[in-house]
Amino acid sequence: MNAERFGQLLRRYRIAAGFSQERVAEDARLSVVSISALERGLRRAPYRHTVERIVAALGLNEEQAKELEAAAAAARGGGLSARSGVPKAREIGLPKTTSFVGRAMDLAHIARLVTSARLVTIAGAGGVGKTRLAFEAAAEVRDAAGPPLFVDLETAASGPMVCAAIASAVANALVEPLEPEALARLFGAKRLMLVLDTCEHVLPEVAQAVVAILRSCPGVSVLATSRQRVGVSGEVVYKLRPLPIPPEAVTSLREAQTYASVDLFIRRAMASEHPISFTNGNAEAVAGICRVLDGIPLLIEVAAARAGTLGLGPLAGRLREGLEPVNVNRDAPPRHRTSLASLTWSYRLLTSGERRVFELLSAFPGTFTLHEAEGVCAAAGLDESSVSEALSSLVEKNLVEVGATGGSTYHSMLNTVRRFASRRRLDSVTNAP
């Protein structure tokens, strides 16, 4: 009843403010599914920090905020605490609403890693498919590593909140914030695979929790997803790259579909509300779309969902101009609504120095060396000695690619990342005093 009371209040205040669930979700940094579940009373009650975000998003006055917080506290009172007993950890699985395309080799590699290492991190750019691969890998190795337990850390804002999110998953009930050592005691002798999703914004806190768990719980292994490594001794990092894209001038549909990016686009477009026919005549158009989107699965799926309404030609033109379709899936988190939102999430995690170097590197249309990067940054007034450190950090955070040829190391940016960095660079110039 308390959860229903909270949901009724939330809905009343949202409608009074004239906000949609999508607006509240974006401003509160939650998913639309979470807001909907809270309003319908399907989710028991939010954490205190979640209530604070909702209050701020709705712009509630002091009296309204207290009423909403009281309803949430009453609902939390009906749940289990860390001291009232811990039931068996609940197993999770990813609803198989879509086929798993183009990641067979990645899945096999991850499956081997998680059976030999206790902490494996799938690292990669936003939208590259880290979460889905983690789900599939955890399901693949459940006999060897134990049942999977999923924890979404997207809304965790602090160390205690990270521990509370993990503890609540283990206890299958809301648990108040606690310290890493107390968290480890909740696992006890359990044998399971802990899947920690979206760790990049709370890496120090995740590292502390993981160290405590691995040190005290020999039956627990961890599979994390992050835009960069967690940074713990013994961690094995698997860098997930975009799907392969076809070369220029594809001549047939069969040839194009041998590339996983094109295969994914066609499958998702055919499953959309307005499916289209694919032929040799439009194979190059599809291949071109996948090239513009750098083979990033999230962007390909979003574009494919709009192909039937826009047409392949107009869609390709919009993408080349830097215009992007919005994700039509209402359960997508705000950071996955567009590539702009996804990259903004990464951009906000950079230091001011890293942001400046990131923006300046967009001047390179192709590959560049460290020496060339230092030259461009020096011309903009930056200290050359700081460029190499910033560049290394950008590589680690999967915003810059690194490769080698002929004994020389070179760097580059994906097209989507370069366009975003260029926009930021222009904004910086425009807003400069």
Fold and architecture overview:
With 433 residues, the chain is an alpha/beta fold. It folds into four domains: 75 residues, 434 Repressor (Amino-terminal Domain) (Orthogonal Bundle), CATH 1.10.260.40; 136 residues, P-loop containing nucleotide triphosphate hydrolases (Rossmann fold, 3-Layer(aba) Sandwich), CATH 3.40.50; 82 residues; 81 residues, Orthogonal Bundle (Arc Repressor Mutant, subunit A). The protein has 21 helices and seven strands. The strands form two sheets. It has a five-stranded parallel sheet, with helices on both faces. A hairpin with a 2-residue loop joins strand 6 and strand 7. It is globular.
Which sequence of SSEs, written as H and E, runs from N to C?
A: HHHHHHEHHEHHEHEEHHHHHHHHHEEH
User: CATH first level of the largest domain: which class?
Assistant: Alpha Beta
Structural class call reads alpha/beta
- The overall pLDDT, averaged over residues, is 83
Gap from first CA to last CA? 55 Å
Taking Cα atoms only, what radius of gyration do you get, to the nearest Å? 23 Å
Physical arrangement of strands within the biggest beta sheet = 2-3-4-1-5
Percent helix, as a range, is 40-55%
Question: Could you describe the largest sheet, including whether it forms a barrel?
Answer: 5 strands, parallel
| CATH architecture type of the largest domain | 3-Layer(aba) Sandwich
CATH superfamily of the largest domain: P-loop containing nucleotide triphosphate hydrolases
Low-confidence stretches: 78-97
Shape: globular
If you consult CATH, what is the topology of the largest domain?
Rossmann fold
Count of individual helical segments: 21
The total of beta strands comes to 7
